[in-house]
Amino acid sequence: MVMRNEPRRLLLLVVNLLLTIQLRVNSVIGLCEHSFVDRNKLYSFSLASPLPRFPHGVLSEDGFYKVVMNESVLWFQLCDGMLFNHDPPRCVECLDCGGPSRCGMECSALVAKNALGYQVCTTIGHVSSTNISVIDAQNPYKGVIVRMSSSGKGQNCSLSVSIICDSTGVQGPNSMEKLGTCDYATVLQHPSGCATIISFHEKGFGWFGTLMTIILCLFGAYLLAGTVYRFFFLGVRGIEVIPNLEFWASLQHRTQSFFSSLVRKFRGPSAGHRSSYSRVNF
């Protein structure tokens, strides 16, 4: 009884391990992806995908971006939480972003204002509240806006970072703008803001191609599930592990027989068949 359950436990362990790895790898990339279709073109933005000169995509390799303007300081990271190996925020209040000892480590955007010689911080963005949209729907080449927000202490705050497409390199962020009571904006020029464009035509297979794709995917899932079940639970080995092997092996012969019967039906009796009868004279 114990030996019979070992394959099942092994299979569950492998599946859980693969799902855990996939979730960790795609957690940042999923937040930084945005795509839409316009005029037979697919515009796809993947801000965290590595580029030749930027292995972390649009994410700052320092763990954060920093903008200083007048009496205010802005820290933020795009599509991920901030990390500080140097120059961390030193705030009087930072309870919803890591506390005074780990200030900035539990949010994605933080702004500080000088009050009587002390920096009072306000969290204005969290990773979980990040969303992406295009800057100009009429001109998708321009770039995207990454908006992150935070709610707390009776006020709603946000930070909007415009990532303008610039294939030559990175510029900024050099300034920030206060749009409301607790809403800020800044601009960053980066190659990751350039969309990957795929052109296609509507004269393809249409609904038929979609239907065939669905059927093939279902067929592949059926074969995979049946093979796993027969291998781990029934102990089948070799080519017999394929479910309904006898049916698939005879499929070619069945198809030939079906078309042969159709040909005979529409052509009528063959010449050889007619010659087997002798002619009778009355």
Looking at this protein, list some descriptive labels.
transmembrane; about 280 residues; about 25% strand; Cation-dependent Mannose-6-phosphate Receptor, Chain A; about 30% helix; 12 strands; alpha+beta; 5-stranded mixed β-sheet; 5 helices; elongated; single chain; 4-stranded antiparallel β-sheet
Structure commentary:
The chain has helices at 2-31, 207-232, 245-249, 251-267, 271-274; strands at residues 33-37, 41-46, 65-69, 72-76, 109-115, 118-125, 131-134, 143-152, 155-165, 176-178, 183-190, 196-199. With 282 residues, the chain is an alpha+beta fold. The strands form three sheets. A five-stranded mixed sheet has the order 7-8-9-11-10, with no helix packed on it. It has a four-stranded antiparallel sheet with strand order 3-4-5-6, with no helix packed on it. A three-stranded antiparallel sheet has the order 1-2-12. The longest helix has 30 residues, at 2-31. Mean pLDDT is 79; it is low at 10-28 and 271-277. It holds the Pfam family ATG27. The chain crosses the membrane at residues 204-225. InterPro entries: Autophagy-rel_prot_27.
Number of domains: 2
**Could you estimate the helical fraction of the residues in percent?**
25-40%
Structural class: alpha+beta
CATH fold name of the largest domain, please? Cation-dependent Mannose-6-phosphate Receptor, Chain A
Tally of extended strands?
12
Output the helix-strand order. HEEEEEEEEEEEEHHHH
CATH architecture of the largest domain: Distorted Sandwich
Q: State Rg.
A: 32 Å
Q: What oligomeric state best describes the polypeptide chains here?
A: single chain
Strand content: 25-35%
What is the level 1 CATH name of the largest domain? Mainly Beta
Provide the residue-averaged pLDDT: 79
Query: Taking strands numbered 1, 2, ... along the chain, how are they ordered across the largest sheet?
Result: 7-8-9-11-10
Shape: elongated
Q: Which regions are unreliable across 5 or more consecutive residues at pLDDT < 50?
A: 10-28, 271-277
- Per DSSP, the total helix count is 5
Cα distance spanning the termini: 82 Å
At the fourth CATH level, what is the homologous superfamily of the largest domain? Answer: Mannose-6-phosphate receptor binding domain
What composes the largest sheet?
A: 5 strands, mixed
Subcellular location: Membrane
Transmembrane segments: 204-225
Keywords: Membrane, Signal, Transmembrane, Transmembrane helix
Membrane topology: Single-pass membrane protein
